[in-house]
Write a structure and sequence with these properties.
alpha/beta, Rossmann fold, seven-stranded parallel β-sheet, about 15% strand
């Protein structure tokens, strides 16, 4: 699955899962555009990628703002001439009692996690539809789209919306040879992996907690040009946690 001569935009790429996804594409030969509000971390990571012989650049982007998104697309096209793959990864979490959740907090979650996916996808597709081979879009959802804990209403709503938006976009973009899929990660540890407990790992059928590179490999699979038969699906990458019975004895 080589990605040489492909340009990939990854939102929320300065840290966490997005950082791992950006690395996966860079090491596979793609030119990677890291879009994030964390400019310091993003620029440092670009330099790290470049020092290893990879091609990357950073564009400061607030995905809540359509003007920032359009600027991101313009800079990408000016620099690399094409947009082939978009990874809509930027997002935030909020766990707060629904009795205390403000409408401003609800709207901010919607704008950050869900509306941004629509705006970025539409903006990228304007360019992708001119590509001879079309393009590919991946939206990062969550297993919380199908299972919940208390006080997660705003987050769950955005992730459920992403799954639904994904198959709608897949239908709309099909005639333009643009595939659209979502990935629903489970527990992906982006901090100190060594600090995890054995019982954390044993919650999973895979017998381990996930890592950002697990999501990166899923993105590489779904956006490979040979896999254009896969579109409109949500791929759960959770080590089997949502399929494991957890009755306590």
């Amino acid at each position: 699955m080589g990605f040489t001569n492909k340009t990939v935009i990854v939102t929320g790429a300065s840290n966490g899962i997005g950082r791992g996804v950006a690395k996966g594409y860079a090491e596979s030969g793609a030119s990677v555009v890291l879009a994030d509000m964390d400019e310091q971390e993003g620029l440092q990571y670009v330099e790290e990628l470049k020092s290893n012989g990879n091609e990357a650049m950073f564009v400061k982007t607030d995905v809540r703002k359509e003007a920032d998104i359009l600027h991101l697309m313009d800079v990408t096209l000016e620099t690399y001439k094409t947009i082939d793959i978009l990874i809509n990864n930027a997002g935030k979490t909020l766990f707060k009692s629904l009795y205390d959740l403000t409408i401003e907090e609800w709207d901010d979650m919607m704008n950050t996690n869900l509306r941004s996916v629509f705006l970025c996808s539409r903006a990228a597709a304007i360019s992708m539809r001119n590509n001879e081979t079309g393009g590919a879009i991946i939206n990062l959802a969550s297993t919380r789209a199908i299972m919940s804990e208390p006080d997660s209403e705003s987050y769950a709503a955005t992730k459920g919306g992403i799954v639904a938006l994904t198959h709608a976009l897949a239908a709309s973009f099909s005639k333009e040879k643009i595939t659209v899929n979502s990935i629903s990660p489970g527990w992906i540890e982006t901090g100190d992996y060594g600090a995890l407990r054995e019982k954390d790992h044993q919650q999973h059928l895979s017998n381990r907690v996930g890592k950002p590179e697990d999501i990166a490999r899923a993105c590489l699979y779904l956006t490979a040009s040979d896999n254009d038969f896969v579109t409109g699906v949500d791929l759960i990458v959770d080590g089997g946690m949502t399929r494991k019975m957890m009755y306590e004895e």
